[in-house]
Write a structure and sequence with these properties.
The structure is a single chain. It is built from 19 helices and 16 strands. By secondary structure, it is α/β, with parallel strands linked by helices. The strands form four sheets. It has a five-stranded parallel beta sheet with strand order 3-2-1-4-16, sandwiched between helices. The protein has a five-stranded parallel beta sheet with strand order 6-14-7-8-9. Strands 10, 11, 12 and 13 form a four-stranded antiparallel beta sheet that branches. Helix 7 packs antiparallel against helix 9 (about 115-130).
């Protein structure tokens, strides 16, 4: 698709990031955009490869070659129409997706991949700018009422699809504004919240009802929900954080990463922020090397941290693909985010053993180096290196160790639905739980994953709910 010889004539060109000296003093989106002609040229690099592995790697199975061709032709209306056929929110994924499609692009075998993610964001923005994305309420209503609990990417996708099917959808959100972790978990410098509000306005105009500051299981009883709605879909995320059970964990100044991020996002939005976790003039230690840890690094730097250190218990990834990690699979390689570029000491193969402090406040973390070895049993073994103990000065510690499963206390427990061996909500192939009328989707059934994976899960759950509602008549 695109220009058959575009990849031979045009090199990869990214929008790039705003200058460091500018972006560190605000929370506006870091990423810049290309002009329209450059974007068309980037789309022209999508070649007629025969087998689009980009589509194979994409959780929502985007039709990349088709909408790249539409961008190349300058047909933005067709581009957004194709995108919307598989993805409800290309403006979200175009900003925060790690782009597994690009890692599986055929050009990536020995050239630089097509800028698929940036092209997606550009198509979405053009769609809004040119009036191609407008409210489109369903022409017919089924009369069936569905409650969606949670308004993250899975909940929004599920609600959007159910509404398109003609059902009457009410979304319950415990926070004061809809969006879930898109709003309060992802920093504004990665995803501006005006982007979320713009889409919510469209969904509201199309008939989706949002009830905020309404926690299901607390503000509205679980059994009341069952009596009021024909079906319920739980999209409550996997919000049970993984903790560190070590000496000194009780010291003041040690927080879960999400508490830190949510508080800052609320401050940026001008909302009540909570306990007042601040990195200003502090030595910040981020424990955990994933995306959440990276977001903590960027936020701490913007708050004026004295120093930021990020440690990870796993070994340092390779710079390039290893022999056992070939294309088109996801590359297990070192990634440096825009937050890391803003200032951060990174350490790998580091075990946190103990927190130390005086007066009830954390001051240091005792860590040691570890070695990972192949035992031949399918899982590597971690061995602590004797004599490698060291202390890291840290008067603010942020635990970015991932999430275990959805919170069981409250709604999940009240509904009495089954859980799998990992503590996630158990569902069948139609996303139906072990209890009649109750479905689930997103991280609540898989554990913490990507925004694009949650969108796909929400779409599939909506399909399962619609089929069940039709058969229940």
């Amino acid at each position: 698709m695109g220009d058959p010889k575009g990849f031979l004539k045009v090199t990869r060109k990214e929008g790039g990031n705003r200058p460091l000296h500018e972006r560190l003093y605000d929370y506006s989106e870091v990423e810049q955009t290309l002009n329209q002609e450059d974007r068309r040229l980037q789309a022209s690099r999508c070649m007629d490869c025969g087998v689009p592995f980009c589509q194979w790697a994409c959780p929502v199975i985007n039709n990349m070659p088709e909408w790249q061709d539409a961008i190349w032709r300058g047909d933005w209306e067709d581009a957004i129409k194709i995108l919307h056929s598989t993805n409800n929110f290309p403006e979200f994924t175009g900003r925060v997706c790690p782009a597994p499609c690009e890692k599986s692009c055929v050009l990536a075998i020995n050239e630089e991949a097509v800028t698929i993610r940036e092209n997606e964001a550009a198509a979405a923005e053009k769609g809004f700018e040119m009036g191609y994305i407008l409210p489109d309420p369903p022409p017919v209503r089924t009369g069936k009422k569905v409650a969606v609990i949670g308004s993250g990417p899975a909940g929004l996708a599920c609600a959007d699809q159910l509404n398109k099917h003609g059902h009457l959808v009410t979304v319950y959100e415990k926070d004061d504004k809809a969006g879930g972790l898109l709003r309060y978990g992802i920093p504004d410098f990665k995803l501006g919240k005006n982007v979320i509000d713009r889409r919510l306005n469209i969904m509201t105009s199309e008939g989706v009802e949002f009830k905020t500051s309404a926690e299901a299981g607390t503000d509205i009883d679980a059994e009341e929900l069952l009596g009021r709605f024909d079906a319920i879909c739980l999209t409550i995320g996997a919000m049970k954080p993984r903790d560190l059970d070590i000496e000194g964990r009780e010291l003041e100044g040690i927080h879960f990463a999400m508490d830190f991020l949510v508080e800052q996002n609320r401050k940026v939005a001008g909302r009540p922020a909570g306990a007042g976790i601040s990195a200003r003039d502090k030595n910040v230690l981020v424990i955990g090397g994933g995306d959440t840890g990276s977001d903590c690094v960027g936020t701490a730097n913007r708050q004026g941290a004295k120093s930021v250190t990020q440690i990870e218990i796993l070994p340092r990834p390779l710079q390039d693909r290893g022999i056992n990690n070939p294309w088109p699979y996801w590359p297990e390689i070192l990634r440096t985010s825009s937050s890391h570029e803003e200032g951060c000491r990174r350490m790998w193969s580091v075990l946190t053993k103990k927190f130390k402090g005086t007066g009830g406040k954390v001051e240091k973390a005792l860590v040691s180096e570890v070695r990972w070895s192949d035992t031949g049993k399918g899982r590597p073994e971690m061995v602590e290196i004797a004599g490698s103990d060291k202390e890291i000065y840290s008067d603010l510690v942020l635990l970015a160790l991932g999430f275990m499963h959805p919170v069981h206390e409250g709604l999940v427990s009240d509904l009495g639905i089954g859980l799998d061996e990992r503590g996630n909500i158990k569902v069948d192939s139609d996303y139906k739980s072990t209890r009649d009328k109750i479905f689930a989707a997103g991280d609540s059934i898989t554990g913490a994953s990507l925004v694009v994976t949650a969108i796909e899960s929400g779409r599939r759950a909506a399909s399962g709910i619609s089929s069940w509602l039709g058969n229940a008549e």
